[in-house]
Amino acid sequence: MTLKSVFIAAALLPLAGAAWADNACLIEGQVYGETIKDCSQTSLPIPAGDYAEQCNSNANGPLKATVLKACPAKAQAACINPFGQKVTTYYYSRGPQALADTKKSCVAQQGKWVDNP
To answer: Alpha-carbon distance 2 to 84, whole Å?
Structure first.
C-alpha cells in the first residue's frame, strides 16, 4: 500500500458516513506527481448540505472536489464497501502500478475490488 493510496482512501472514506439521495464526490487533481480522478458514491441518508461540505473539505491543496448525483461512467475499477462502510469509490486515469497499489489497499481495507465496473 503506497502513501498515495492511503491518502486518497483516507480523504474519501469520511464520505461514507455523510445524502438523502445518492451522492457522489469527484476528486480531481495532482497528488505526488500523479493525476488523480477518483469518485466516491453513497446512498446513505445524509443531508445534501452536509455531504457537500464533507466533499469540499477533501479538496485541499491541488485537489478539486465536485458534488454529483452519481459518479461518471467508464471507471477503470471500483472498491466497494471498504472498512464495511456503505460506499463505493471509483478510480479513473490510473497507471498500471497505481491501479495495482490501489487494489491492494482496497483488499487490505476489506473492500471488494471490481475491474471495469
So the answer is: 21
The domain of 93 spans: 3-115
Reading the chain (117 residues) residue by residue, the pLDDT tens digits are 444 444 444 445 444 443 344 689 999 998 888 888 999 999 788 888 888 898 999 887 789 999 999 999 999 999 999 999 999 999 999 999 999 999 999 999 999 999 999
In residues, how long is the chain?
A: 117
Tally of CB atoms within 10 A around 82: 22
For 10-72, what is the HEC assignment?
HHHHHHHHCCCCCEEEEEEEEECCEEEEEEEEECCCCCHHHHHHHHHHCCCCCCEEEEECCCC
Number of domains in the chain: 1
Task: Return the amino acid letter for 55.
Answer: C
